[in-house]
Design a protein that fits this description.
With 408 residues, the protein is α+β, with helices and mostly antiparallel strands. The protein is built from 14 helices and 15 strands. Strands 1-4-5-13-10-15-8-7-6 form a 9-stranded antiparallel β-sheet. Strands 9-14-11-12 form a 4-stranded antiparallel β-sheet, covered by helices on one side.
């Protein structure tokens, strides 16, 4: 072997290095919290923060004027969602739209309450529910717990309060709760995701007509509102804006150590409709890549609670994921995050009576978790079922490829 040729050991190392995709490299880089001020400043200078325009790189982003100031706000329970004052796109990612702080705090807390108390319970499906052949056709066959995961979690938190009265009056209950947690299959501690509308089959990577629930009315209304905004921003000359039918929602419940690997949302048939993403709770470092995991650049974006993001147009099939969740300590210390002022929120009176009662518990959960609601339209306009696509002799795989070519 001549000196110019690498040794077998070096060849293996080189091959292993080439296997690491651009997306994986970015995820590894931003997965770790900076440990020094210099490292922090270096890392932060590469992360796009749409709430800090002075840090945005002009060659990357462009603000969009809306011109919708006079339009009526959307009523969301007792809150009002007004039109955003700022909107941004990324020049290298056509079809991407970002609305920083578009969801007001009262609406965030309201949505978080319902996501914890209702949207993760039957008839909606979660990661905890077994997707056996018997239960796929109907959620009615799944066992119903005596109390919801939310009530169970609140009882646990109450029993853990470090006061003399709580210790005296709740000690027996605390032991019972501990035993129940082991026997109880559904708890918030085990919850990772919930699906509403079409339930995504993670094993078969498909949607099914016989496995779905009704998308809650408030989510439908809010999604259509934001979809209309998206089309008004991105295709202002198209009047009226195209319709949007929110038929599938995924709620992610992230813990501090959670991540989301790079993936492309490519299994819907209506790829001409955007994916709408709303963020609650702790912030995170989101990664937006190319059409494959190998493509560069991979852009890191700071996602703050209340931000609304859209992947549509030529960015609809971009690979994306989450590098890490930012802790409350880091959020306050390094990013200038602000605490939720419960008294102020209560004085405003913009929460439903249910959310108002549980506000302290909602705040406690959000201080340790990130929640993300993303909504999409599964079928093309005018098509009411997946079966209807098959009846029309449309090959589902070829149909997706055709739509993808149009998107690309």
């Amino acid at each position: 072997m001549s000196p110019s040729q690498p040794s077998p050991k070096n060849t293996t190392t080189t091959q292993q290095q080439t296997i690491i995709s651009a997306f994986k490299a970015a995820q590894s880089k931003y997965r770790r919290r900076p440990q020094s001020k210099l490292e922090y400043e270096s890392s932060r200078s590469t992360i796009i923060d749409f709430s800090s325009p002075q840090q945005l790189r002009e060659n990357f982003f462009q603000p969009i004027s809306n011109g919708f100031e006079n339009e009526k706000p959307l009523s969301f329970f007792s809150s009002e969602i007004t039109h955003p004052t700022q909107a941004f796109t990324l020049k290298e990612f056509p079809g991407f739209l970002y609305l920083p702080g578009a969801l007001p705090l009262s609406a965030q807390l309201e949505l978080a309450y319902w996501a914890l108390s209702n949207y993760c319970e039957l008839p909606h499906m979660t990661n905890i529910d077994s997707l056996t052949s018997d239960s796929k056709s109907s959620n009615d066959s799944l066992p119903v717990e005596a109390i919801s995961m939310w009530e169970h979690w609140k009882n646990e938190q109450s029993s853990q309060k470090n006061t003399k009265n709580a210790i005296k009056t709740k000690s027996k209950n605390h032991k019972t709760n501990s035993r129940n947690t082991k026997a109880r299959p559904k708890t918030l501690q085990r919850l990772s995701w919930s699906t509403m509308g079409y339930h995504y089959d993670w094993t078969e990577r498909s949607y099914r007509d016989d496995c779905h629930s009704t998308v809650p009315s408030p989510i439908q209304t809010m999604s259509r509102y934001y979809a209309q905004l998206y089309f008004q921003y991105m295709t202002p000359n198209q009047t009226p804006p195209p319709p949007f039918d929110p038929t599938a929602c995924i709620l992610n419940y992230y813990k501090l150590k959670s991540l989301m690997g790079g993936h492309s949302d490519n299994l819907e048939y209506a790829l001409d409709k955007p994916v709408i993403s709303l963020s609650l709770g702790l912030p995170a470092i989101f990664l937006l890549g190319g059409r494959t995991k190998e493509d560069s650049p991979v852009i890191p974006i700071l996602i703050r609670p209340g931000d609304v993001m859209f992947l549509g147009g030529k960015s609809r099939l971009r690979y994306h994921g989450m590098a890490r969740v930012i802790s409350l300590e880091e959020w306050f210390q390094d990013w200038g995050g602000k605490d939720i002022n419960i008294e102020e929120i209560q004085k405003e009176g913009k929460l439903s009576s249910h959310a108002h009662t549980d506000l302290e518990f909602v705040k406690l959960y959000l201080s340790k978790h990130r929640m993300n609601l993303n909504v999409r339209q599964v079928l093309p306009d005018g098509v009411s079922s997946i079966l209807e696509m098959d009846v029309k002799d449309v090959d589902t795989l070829e149909q997706r490829k055709k739509v993808k070519r149009n998107v690309d």
